[in-house]
Write a structure and sequence with these properties.
161 residues; six-stranded antiparallel β-sheet; 4 helices; globular
Length: 161
């Protein structure tokens, strides 16, 4: 796989996701190490879209623990019932937050974060293994387009769990 992403510019997000997906797929399919795959997915999403923060929180020791990410330092541990990540974990669904200040119990790891999308990643047995957390420094930056395409990317990881 090339060490550089080929990402179209000046286009809509769906087109960028469609161009990015086969590149991420090529990275993930040839690598067996979970941490390496999570790191590359985080880097690819950050590079392609310029999101403020992109990373994974992995279920460990009865909580969500910071995994591979791109962006400023982050909260290290999140309880299953706290913040957007905890809500996504406990509700086992994607959560899109247009304004993090309006989300009850939002955890402010960085005050520059304005909107957020969090998606659960499932083990084959149906339990949540981790969540993907993507933050933007823009209000209302995520939509169903992001949810659908990020979900498709996460299926690449779920197949390996």
């Amino acid at each position: 796989m090339a060490e550089e992403l080929l990402v179209p510019t000046d286009t809509d997000r769906a087109t960028v996701y469609n161009a990015l997906f086969p590149q991420i797929q090529a990275l993930v399919e040839t690598e067996s190490d979970l941490i390496a795959n999570l790191a590359n997915i985080s880097a690819a999403l950050k590079e392609a879209f310029g999101f403020f923060w992109v990373g994974f929180y992995i279920v460990k020791e009865g909580q969500l623990v910071l995994g591979p990410f791109q962006g400023p330092i982050a909260c290290t541990r999140i309880a299953f019932n706290k913040g957007v990540c905890g809500a996504s974990y406990s509700q086992q669904k994607t959560i899109v937050v247009p304004d993090v200040e309006a989300f009850p119990g939002h955890i402010a790891c960085n005050s520059a974060s304005k909107s957020e999308i969090v998606l659960p990643v499932f083990h084959r047995n149906g339990t949540v293994a981790m969540v993907l957390d993507v933050d933007s420094d823009q209000l209302d930056d995520f939509s169903e387009v992001d949810a659908a395409h990020l979900g498709k990317i996460l299926k690449l990881i779920e197949r390996k769990l």
